[in-house]
Design a protein that fits this description.
8-stranded mixed beta sheet; mainly beta
Length: 116
């Protein structure tokens, strides 16, 4: 039996941009991606602490050390610049493997979106 478990989590980052005129996705600073073990084009869930929105999209690599967190396309309507969000990815794995799996959680500085 396979189950879904949390693979990676970027806990509390601040939205720096919202670009409605884009195909869709979330742009994330490459440093944050590396630290949280999230890769480009990976499906993620976005949880907006400010308004309670929860939605899924995919990741685009942002400029390293820029602090960018940009919601693109229709997702831009679910946030405001300055909102604090949590970004979560999941993995499907065998039940026994899941018991010992260790997810990657990071807790960036929410004023700069940099790794503390």
């Amino acid at each position: 039996m396979n189950i879904e478990v949390v693979k990676s989590k970027i806990h509390k980052v601040t939205v720096t941009e919202a670009n409605l005129n884009y195909v869709g996705s979330i742009t994330i600073d490459e440093d944050l991606m590396d630290a949280s073990n999230i890769i480009e084009h990976e499906k993620v869930q976005i949880v907006n602490i400010n308004n309670g929105e929860r939605f899924e999209t995919y990741v685009i690599k942002g400029e390293r050390a820029s602090g960018v967190i940009c919601l693109n396309g229709p997702a831009a309507r679910k946030v405001q610049v300055g909102d604090v969000v949590i970004i979560i990815s999941y993995a499907s794995m065998d039940f026994e493997e899941a018991k010992t799996f260790k997810p990657s959680f990071i807790f960036p500085d929410i004023t700069t979106n940099s790794i503390v």
